[in-house]
Amino acid sequence: MRVRHVIALDVGGTGMKAALVGPDGALLHRALRPTGREHGPEAVTEAVLRFAEDLRVHGEREFGEPAAAAGVGVPGVVDAGTGSVAYSANLGWRDVPLRSLLSERLGGVPVALGHDMRAGGLAEGRLGAGRGVDRFLYLALGTGISAAICIDGRIEAGAHGSAGEIGHVVVRPGGPACGCGGRGCLESLASASAVAREWAAACGDPGATAEDAARAVEAGDPRARRVWDGAVSALADGLLVCITLLDPRALIVGGGLAGAGETLFAPLRAALAERVVFQTLPTVLPAALGDNAGSLGAGLLAWDLLPDGAASTGAASTEAAASVASATGPAVSVEAAAR
Amino acid sequence: MRVRHVIALDVGGTGMKAALVGPDGALLHRALRPTGREHGPEAVTEAVLRFAEDLRVHGEREFGEPAAAAGVGVPGVVDAGTGSVAYSANLGWRDVPLRSLLSERLGGVPVALGHDMRAGGLAEGRLGAGRGVDRFLYLALGTGISAAICIDGRIEAGAHGSAGEIGHVVVRPGGPACGCGGRGCLESLASASAVAREWAAACGDPGATAEDAARAVEAGDPRARRVWDGAVSALADGLLVCITLLDPRALIVGGGLAGAGETLFAPLRAALAERVVFQTLPTVLPAALGDNAGSLGAGLLAWDLLPDGAASTGAASTEAAASVASATGPAVSVEAAAR
């Protein structure tokens, strides 16, 4: 059976998630590979290109035709105009013209380049927890903390491609040192790594994880409760800043720490309710797409390049058409650098 | 000579600023009246209606025709859908259907209702310091601190009309009590009132103002320098949060405290430069329209209701047309409740 599809790549600091995505956003095929950061930036580029090439071959074999387009999400500063990655600390990249490299490797198909978190936010907005929500913050609590901001159906990139860096909002002035060089950043207090570090120190097991901390909280361990409450309190303070500035309708929370479910969400909702004064409390929702958000988002970016893409996903496509609402609610779009 | 014009009203907690505004954004006439908050909410409503009525008469007499439309900016929560002011602490209003009341009083002309700060941001974006800037924060440092956020040429209202409340971002956890009920809000540390209060305490003159503080700083008074530096430091911390979250291209600073000019701007730029890590430093600019921003913005909202409004101001009009860029740079729009 011939199935029209696109290649989707979510390139992370340690692993790459890839998918073949159908016109309705269906995941037709998934694959994982290490990024191989330790082999240097050129090797990372080659690993990305080879992964895409192999997916193209796989798609042609399984679905009777080659991918119609490709989308790739990258952590870092993406220049949508030139289609290059200006800078990525996670990948060791500087000025990598990924769009043209990928398009060349894939026989000239259109390629969309986007920011990984914003691609994930796009997917949550169109296919996940943000369906029909015009204004939301999509937050990932993992090794770090970052966010995608959706305003009136569009994922905001900022003037220089770095909007949404909520992980580096200072919530505890003079607090713990953060990887960014600052102190007391949200990320240094409420990321999965921060919770793991604090819980490891509290329980004496250097290998303890954030998941272990959540389990200890559920088992009623008061030390774990203190660690957990500290993280939730910092998170609520950081989110309150976003609520005060942006007045979003929903907060969509994903990433490793969100795996704790109500152990996280119940106290987080309570902490936010305690903090709002004049602000309207947004709905706090778990992300719906899990680890697939980034690759699905990359797939949506790719579909948006095709004339039949927008129609078949029932959503608005690129920036120019962003204000158009679909029947199922406001559609979501994101900056994408099309070739 | 017949001159086409609109009525523009900027309703504040103590005074109302009104204007007749020409199609090119020219201020054809200005007037001020007290709001009369002490006489109760109904009296405030009547004062607004009478002011508008008198402006209509004035315009007809001076310019040979009655105003073609009216715009009004109000501090508080504006419901653009119903054209009413849901809540305004400053005016004592709750659910005042201002748009229909005004239109009735003005013989049925179209009336636009907007938020005062967002109207001011619209004016700075189209006619002032933000001309040609796609993404900016317009900040007013007065009795309180509030902001309008411009994203891709649109002034963001938020999901419930309360976006931009930067004055209530907490920058000193556990700090001074704020009028909102919180502690350590930016407004309690860096507003003109906060500076006046601190300087009054430091110099022993209970009547001292923020302007006095600025003059004492310029005269080299070390006590004044301490007060001033504390406010600038809090302001830079608050703005850094906006930069981290929103990545704006420019910060446009107005309000009473901005009257200090380089006494404020030089240390503020230095404090921001000191704080950015990965963030791109936005341009920090003084607001260009001063006290007229709010009434000019109300006038623009009114012009945007008229078929010839957008064309004659050379800018995009309402939300639907917001992404259209004009020849002089991206145009700016704002939510407006048209009748």
TrEMBL record, chains A, B:
Coiled coil: none annotated. It comes from the Bacteria. Belongs to the ROK (NagC/XylR) family. This is ROK family protein. It comes from Streptomyces thermolineatus.
